[in-house]
């Protein structure tokens, strides 16, 4: 465990130049005078010139006000984090909610990341020729912060997200922040947005680190510049069912990943690939889609944004990580928790027939944590599990993991990082 104070955050707090009223110095000056205006420069100014002078004066006043507001930004930050945001915490879903600050850090190709800074949350500017827009050179991560009784904040295994981003960045030919830079950036962003963390038991603060090729490139090649950015949003349950069982359909024609591809890293393109099948499934009333391998079309891979587990005779099985499945951090944690609870866990190829014959099925992921599966539909055949709630195994694992994440029990796994 580690404890730190929000005072350390203020040193890195910077205004967001991306949303500043003036993008460059030229906007502060008058347009060039036309030739006719130059000839009469000493005569009384025309109405048009008077208007220009008035506009210039107004711009200077606005700029002064902007600088004054920047000078008190730290005071604003201090006031904001002392209060809880005005949100209906009892009806918080999994949707985007703009918060106060984001964190930005840049790097040139082959270089090292510069010192990052907190900026006011706002839109960013990208060249139309940015590598992320043209060639999909981008990664993201997802992790959560929880508020404990008493006000302290818990992060869950942020160094694992940092390591996974570094692994993905290597696959995508991108420079990545160090583990220390990643974790410090997460801590700074969370503390700067402290008032947006839901009260204990009401949800969590979802943290979204992004790594993207922001430099302009025309030919197919790695971008010349990269941006690491973190923003956050308060969230509730991922599925509209909450922690009630979800209903999945097995997709046997479209595939999420291929051997040798990028299915095993958290690149942005992996998620665009599932939208067609997912949209069709939701239109039919299913919660999400479970994908099969693209070679044999009989082995389980993963749900659109979750890993899958099946339980049979108290033995827990999950598809092995072989390059086409994302190595989920919640997946890894559930495996460790299950083994610590005395369960046998197998990481191996799992067939769709085993899925249909299982006693319990559940999904894991940062967003969903642990979600019980109520039914699976495959080639028109629907199989249901349990009595409409958590199975005994998934309930036990869910309780142990969430108690650790929320600081309700002693962290004997040394997984949480505490902030105050």
Topology:
Elements: H1 7-10, H2 35-39, H3 47-71, H4 73-81, E1 101-108, E2 117-120, H5 131-135, E3 138-140, E4 143-147, E5 153-156, H6 158-171, H7 179-192, E6 204-213, E7 225-235, E8 246-251, H8 268-272, H9 275-283, E9 288-292, E10 300-303, E11 307-312, E12 315-319, H10 329-340, E13 344-348, H11 352-356, E14 360-365, E15 369-378, E16 381-384, H12 392-405, E17 416-419
Parallel strand pairs: 8-9, 8-15, 12-13
Antiparallel strand pairs: 1-2, 1-7, 3-6, 4-5, 4-6, 5-17, 6-7, 9-10, 11-12, 11-14, 14-15, 15-16
List the defining traits of the structure above.
420 residues, eight-stranded antiparallel beta sheet, alpha+beta, 12 helices
């Amino acid at each position: 465990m580690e404890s730190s104070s929000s005072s350390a955050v203020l040193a890195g707090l910077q205004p967001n130049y991306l949303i500043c009223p003036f993008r460059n110095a030229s906007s502060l000056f008058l347009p060039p005078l036309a030739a006719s205006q130059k000839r009469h420069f000493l005569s009384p100014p025309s109405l048009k010139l008077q208007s220009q002078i008035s506009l210039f004066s107004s711009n200077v006043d606005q700029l002064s006000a902007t600088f004054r507001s920047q000078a008190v930004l730290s005071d604003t930050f201090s006031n904001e984090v002392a209060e809880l945001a005005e949100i209906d915490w009892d009806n918080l879903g999994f949707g985007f909610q703009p918060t106060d600050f984001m964190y930005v850090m840049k790097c040139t190709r082959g270089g090292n990341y510069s010192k990052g800074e907190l900026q006011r949350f706002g839109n960013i500017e990208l060249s139309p020729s940015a590598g992320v827009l043209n060639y999909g050179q981008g990664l993201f991560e997802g992790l959560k912060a929880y508020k404990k009784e008493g006000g302290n904040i818990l992060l869950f295994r942020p160094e694992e997200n940092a390591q996974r981003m570094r692994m993905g960045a290597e696959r995508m030919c991108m420079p990545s922040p160090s583990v220390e830079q990643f974790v410090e950036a997460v801590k700074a962003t969370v503390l700067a947005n402290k008032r947006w963390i839901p009260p204990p038991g009401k949800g969590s603060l979802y943290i979204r680190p992004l790594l993207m090729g922001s430099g302009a490139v025309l030919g197919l090649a790695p971008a010349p510049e990269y941006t690491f950015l973190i923003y956050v949003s308060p969230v509730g349950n991922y599925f509209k069912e909450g922690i009630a069982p979800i209903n999945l359909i097995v997709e046997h024609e479209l595939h999420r990943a291929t051997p040798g591809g990028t299915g095993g890293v958290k690149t942005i393109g992996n998620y665009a690939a599932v939208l067609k099948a997912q949209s069709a499934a939701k239109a039919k009333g299913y919660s999400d889609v479970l994908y099969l391998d693209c070679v044999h079309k009989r082995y389980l891979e993963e749900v659109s944004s979750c890993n899958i587990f099946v339980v049979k005779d108290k033995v827990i099985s999950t598809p092995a990580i072989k390059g086409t499945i994302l190595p989920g951090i919640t997946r890894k944690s559930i495996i460790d928790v299950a083994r610590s609870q005395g369960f046998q866990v197998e990481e191996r190829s799992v067939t769709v027939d085993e899925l249909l014959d299982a006693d319990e099925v559940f999904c894991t992921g940062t967003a969903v944590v642990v979600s019980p599966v109520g039914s699976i539909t495959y080639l028109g055949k629907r199989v249901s599990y349990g009595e409409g709630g958590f199975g005994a195994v998934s309930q036990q694992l869910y309780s142990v993991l969430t108690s650790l994440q929320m600081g309700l029990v002693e962290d004997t796994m040394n997984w949480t990082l505490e902030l105050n």
